[in-house]
Amino acid sequence: MSKTRRETNRVLLSALAAAIAAAIVFVQTEISANAGDIPPKASAFLRAYPDFFTGYKDNMLICKDGSMLTFDDGRTKSFEQLLSEADPKDELHQSYPTGPASYAPPAMNFDPGRFRCAALFKKMYGANAGEVESHLTSVAWLPHFTRNVVRITKINGVDHQLAAVSSELEQLPPEERKYVLKTGGTFNWRPIAGSDQLSAHSFGVAIDIDPDYSDYWRWAGAARSGGFIPYRNRIPHRIVEIFERHGFIWGGKWYHYDTMHFEYRPELLP
Predict the structure, then answer these.
(1) pTM score, two decimals?
(2) Number of other residues whose CB lies within 10 A of the CB of residue 131
């Protein structure tokens, strides 16, 4: 290759690099300029999943791969529709409570976190069992006290967060640690009981702790007869707070309670 041609190629590559850099600066500037236009609930997703979402524009959550998800479909929905037809905005329809006052028996149909956008979960974690399984990894569960290993997704660093939960749970006194030595399951591609909606377990983001110490609304006699569901819980609050510190919400704060259940939903936490 001649010296003149090498110089021409160098100039062209330099110009191309400068153009790419300018384009990146333009996009970043546009995002920054419009930051004040992002609804707070959309901002919660950008904050919670920085490795998955890169921005928000015109009612669309922008994914890292360039695709987009409609944030708000503009529909007013009944409780049943929120459960089966949620958009991302609907996921935050009810505020998940934290702190000492958050353990009071929930009001009827207060289920923050049970509204899940199927399109978002499938886009983020996998559209079928095979896709989800391809992102799973094994996490040693309380390894100083058990030989249990659980399978959880690597996406969004959920595996690292669950490993941190396990490390903190190991520091509990024996009378509290007993609630978490056994688990009731993690990944399982299946619908929610009594529903055709996929469980959070389908996406490898949920874990059930020992069912022997847990309570579930469908086990309550009043639930079977259609009456008001009496609240029950035996899980110590300190366990709940460890999970919450690492992005997991607890099913024990739902009217339709499931006290063994924790799922990774950092968009719902402060």
Answers:
(1) 0.86
(2) 12
